[in-house]
Amino acid sequence: MKLNIAHLYPDLLNLYGDRGNIQCFRKRLEWRGIECEVTQYLQGEEIDFSNIDIVLLGGGSDREQEIVCEELKKIKKGFQEYVADDGVVLAVCGGYQLLGKYYKTNTKKIEGLEILDIYTEWEPERLLRNIILESDLFATPVVGYENHGGRTYIGAHQPFGKVFYGLGNTGKGDYEGVVYKNVIATYLHGPLLPKNPHVCDYLLQKALCRKYGEDVTLAPLDDELEQKANHYIVARYSNKGNVLQETIKRHI
Amino acid sequence: MGFRRNLVIRFSKWASNMSQKIRGGQGVTLPGYIARTLDHHILTSLSNDVRKKTFVVMGTNGKTTVNSILYHALAAEGEKVVINKTGSNMLNGVISAFVLATDKKGRLDADYACIEVDELAAMRVLPMLQPDYLVLTNIYRDQLDRFGEVDITFQKVKEAIEKAPKLTLLINGDDVLSYTLAQESKHDFMTYEINEQIFDDKSRSEIRESIFCRKCGHKLEYKFFHYGQLGDYTCPHCGLTRPAADFAAENIKLLGDGSSFDVQGRHFETASPAPYNIYNTLSAFSALRMAGIEAPHFEEMIANYDYANSRESQFEIAGTHLQIHLAKNPVGFQQKVSLVLRDEKPKDIIIMINDEYQDGEDVSWLWDVDFQYLENEHTSSIITAGKRGYDMQLRLKYEDIQSEVTLDMKNTIRDCIDHRTNNLYIIVNYTGLYSTNDLLKELADEYAGKEA
Q1: Residues of B with CB below 8 A from A232's CB?
Q2: Number of CB pairs < 8 Å for A and B?
Q3: B256, B276, B303 — which closes off a domain?
Q4: pLDDT tens digit sequence for B246-263
Q5: A59-75 b/e with 16+ CB inside 10 Å = b?
């Protein structure tokens, strides 16, 4: 078996250790004896979605997102069809925003791919902190770090998770991200996948099943360390004293 | 100088003294806070008393070293210099440096001031300080949870510079971000550059910042890269091109225990084998020359300059060599990885990652460092530590690098001294620096006691 992973515009969208997500996909396939080929698509390159099993769309600065926006116009149709055909996508931060209708920054309106019926608006206060989600998709919490100026309004979409600690889509601390077909779109850095191997395996499984049929199952891996790193964050914010302490620190 | 200022200074110094006695801190920010609260113009008033010139050093990496070299160079010429030595580079720290430099009568006796300023603090510091010269070392991705994005850092530095109209800039011409910033500002500027390829692959992560032209959004072309986004760049669309250097380091030789190079016909020999210290030394010397200072003693000063000053200490404990390295962002960490690997003796490496506010609460950046080089025949063991020790171990796991994790630094270091290679590197981020330094001092005393 083999999966083809497309890393879109890594030269523009490479903030916050996004390549850790690629590395996580790659290693967790390799450790199971499954082949993996990662292709980086740079500005101006043609993308043939028929050959792709997973797409990673990462985060960039607002300035870089404007540049990417022009590129996306060229691949919009192919990308929309890929998602409609159950293609697997992980979109993080800027990538999440670009899947929607638009992102209105303080100076410009950046048009998105219109794959999700969502929109984002910039506000001056940046939403920054560790974040923990409880997702219907997983028994284990999802942990990460959020760092965004945009507030994303997801309408009727299913969120990726309910916020256990943190601020989430609009800063209100209710919901975070979007799950739509085989797309996970989220603000979570960290990077997302290494500390949440359950999310990584979920996406890998979806991609393998789409390519090789419904009965593909992933062999278990020793995830003791991944769980320890995940649990460290969960334990830290399950302790009310710690949460209070951090809140006080943030305000002085 | 007024009676009121005198009173404010004396009270601030007294309070700093008391605070040190009571809390045992270093007392390097409190006097600034008090003095500023009592007198809003205190910094402007004190900096006006500097007889000759005021230098400010800013930039993501290297500012403490550059500022320290500047200070030592001026001191070697017999000048009296104010410096904020302890890396206290926010507004209160800068004011404290001036307050604490005054004499008993509250007077400042200084020819020059060398002040390191945090990029985000610059907005407040520069208008009050009104410096003559600014050395901008580089602008890299750093502590994204604090700075947001590198573009935000860029904007803040630019706005701060605009508030200091008499400033002349010295920038690293190899850094396209710094160069664009200098061009966009209305200030006069000069450049320093390195034209030779002295950085190896291990010091050069694939991740680069700002490889897109800020003017027109097109991708820059590079004749060569140093590291980070530093190199010889040109924009094929709008023609933005790395400028010719006003000051260039030439004939660079990197040796096992030092380096030598030439600038404008002067020959320098240093005790640091780290290539990035060529930049640091070059920029300090260029700043002096830009200010019209001949600095005839620079050669002698730099030959004896200890690059591993208070920030990065070395210890010898019971036959074990221990070296602390500070690494706070991807570009800096990559440089430290390369530096550690230059030592081909067997070694153990501890990597300690904390996530306090000063460190950056977000540790995602660890994934932007290429760690795969760390595992080679000379690396005997790698141990991760700190609040995010598991995160660090996980980072290594995804390069298939074996490591241990420790929750007890003291005993782990004891174990390294007693049972391992006798050559220990400890790479830490910011808050780990002070705790590790203290820990090693304690252990040095403990082992000295055992031998006695």
Answers
A1: 388, 390
A2: 87
A3: B303
A4: 999 999 998 878 999 999
A5: bbbbbbbbbbbebbeeb
